[in-house]
Amino acid sequence: MSAETHNPVDAADAADGGVTPFGPDNPAPFIEPPRARTKRTPRATRTNFEMYGWLFMRLSGIVLVVLVLGHLLIQLVLDGGVSKIGFAFVAGRWANPFWQLWDLAMLWLAMLHGANGLRTVINDYAERDVTRTWLKWLLYAATVFTVLLGTLVIFTFDPNIQ
Amino acid sequence: MPAGTLYRGREGMWSWVAHRVTGVLIFFFLFVHVLDTALVRVSPQDYDKVVATYKNPVVNLMEYGLVAAILFHALNGLRVIAVDFWSKGPKYQRQMLWSVVGIWVVLMAGAFYPVLQHSLHDLFGS
């Protein structure tokens, strides 16, 4: 911002009076370009994070349709529905690395897909900056905790725990 | 209500609303579900005790609701992908929504007995 002798308000008043306000003796105030780079400006001021988020929702969505509907079919539809579920049933399925991998992929993709969806919802409806920030940190904390807990359970499962 | 939340109405808006509502519901269930499954690391008895809750008729009905939410979110999600990536997607978005609803109704009818059979046997015998 250059130090000018003239107050911009005076210039505006002059414009209202129909007189040409600015000239060599009365220069217009210097307006800094809105995107001027300073020494502290990072080299890239924006990323494509939202675009990758958008793409991730669609790619993970397609995979989740297969993983989740398969999961529902096995757990809630085939072989008597919910009746057969119990520790023995879980042990039987996780004896096979294929189903361990299935559940691991489902856990990570569903949690990240859901967390990104909820992030969008929070951004849309929480209008106060403080509320929005806190809700998102709560969401991120809960997401990291749940993903890590689930991963730990899949990898450390012990069918002979007792 | 925040400004701009209710806009043009009709299929486009209501499918968007339903997608949000089902998405949030499924996400909250997912938290609970990872926590209850984590009990397999505590003891078989504790796990089976909590899974018994899932076999209660009221909770069993909620599972049918969960299936309803997931099926809609999955089918409408595929429609959203078609709208975004298929050149004729935006033109046929309305027809695709009614196809989603039709497939959803058929799948929900088909899932009725398998998902609720536990409670049906409990409540009405054999």
What would you say this structure looks like, in words?
- The complex is a heterodimer of chains A (162) and B (126).
- With 162 residues, chain A is mostly helical.
- Chain A has a domain at 50-156: Fumarate reductase/succinate dehydrogenase, transmembrane subunit (3 helical TM bundles of succinate and fumarate reductases).
- Chain A has five helices and no strands.
- The longest helix of chain A is centred in the middle third of the chain and has 29 residues, at 49-77.
- Residues 1-6 and 9-15 of chain A have low confidence and may be disordered.
- Chain B has a single domain, classed as 3 helical TM bundles of succinate and fumarate reductases.
- In chain B, helix 1 packs across helix 3.
- The model of chain B has no long low-confidence stretch (mean pLDDT 91).
- Chains A and B meet through helix 2, helix 3, helix 4 and helix 5 of A and helix 1, helix 2, helix 3 and helix 4 of B.
Kindly summarize this structure in a few lines:
Chain A is mostly helical and about 160 residues long.
Topology:
The complex is a heterodimer of chains A (162) and B (126).
Chain A: H1 8-16, H2 49-77, H3 87-94, H4 97-125, H5 129-156
Chain B: H1 10-37, H2 44-54, H3 57-85, H4 93-124
Helix pairs in contact in B: 1-3, 3-4
H/E order of the elements of chain A?
A: HHHHH
Tell me the helix content of chain B.
over 70%
Largest interface: A-B, 43 and 40 residues
Q: Structural class of the secondary elements of chain A?
A: mainly alpha
CATH homologous superfamily name of chain B?
Fumarate reductase/succinate dehydrogenase, transmembrane subunit
Spatial extent as radius of gyration of chain A: 29 Å
**How many extended strands of chain B?**
0
**Range of strand content of chain A:** under 5%
Low-confidence stretches of chain A: 1-6, 9-15
- Would you tell me the overall average pLDDT of chain B? 91
Q: Would you identify the CATH architecture of chain B?
A: Up-down Bundle
**Cα gyration radius of chain B (Å):** 18 Å
Assembly state of the chains shown: heterodimer
How can the largest sheet of chain A be summarized?
A: none
* Molecular shape of chain A: elongated
Distance N to C terminus of chain A: 74 Å
Number of strands of chain A: 0
Q: What is the approximate shape of chain B? A: elongated
Keywords (chain A): Heme, Iron, Membrane, Metal-binding, Transmembrane, Transmembrane helix
Main location (chain A): membrane
Subcellular location (chain A): Membrane
Region (Disordered) (chain A): 1-41
